[in-house]
Amino acid sequence: MNLFSGFFAIVQAAQKDYVSAGWLIVLAGIFDALDGAMARLTNSSSEFGVELDSLADVVSFGTAPSFILYAAFFHEWRTAGVVIASLPALCGALRLARFNVQLVGFDKDYFRGLPIPSAALVLMSYLLFYHLPETGIISADVKPVLLTVITLAVSLLMVSTIRYETLPKPSPRAIRSAPLKFIVIFIGIVASIVTRGKAIFPFMLLYLVLGIVRQCVHMYRHRSGDEEDDTVEGEDVTPFDV
After folding, report:
1. Which of 116, 124, 170, 202 could pair covalently with 61 via S-S, beta carbons 3.0-4.6 A apart?
2. Where do the domains of the chain lie?
3. Domain 2-224 is found in CATH 1.10.3470
């Protein structure tokens, strides 16, 4: 269903229905969040499932968002537009390949680099609710610059080694151990429903910024010698270490 949603989003974008295409990416994200729970419920976790999940993700959260960005705006810039619009797909594929080879022994509390579903949500929520509509919130002259900056930033963050928190599995024990995290997630979901999706981008932007701030603090402590052992998927001196 994740992969089908991504394919259908491409079909809708080809027909210039960018709103439906964007919401299909959100729907793909919901299916992607549920696949682990379904695997545990049916006792069907396997390496096959891991590979299938990544293949679906590279279409739904890489290729489809890139095509939507190109069809909705970047086609106006011709060759430069093709290059910029392709970056989420290219960087997303690299991000997933790196993740798959690091599955053994990686820290389950953090991802290395921005997860590709999060990147797709950032791009689609901005495009749908702030770039395309004539709301007057953002000047028409500024919109192309913002869309380009966000596309470049999200693509770079995916291939970076900046640490981003994983989505916690809802359980009484997890809620007791990290109540603030669940409160923020709950507020984000409610706000997104009440605002009909407009709150998705601000909350995803907060997620991006928190990861960058955490990385800056980590680098400062590392250089100061205050942090002797920090084993989150290995110790990275710079945000773009391979």
Report:
1. 116
2. 2-224
3. no
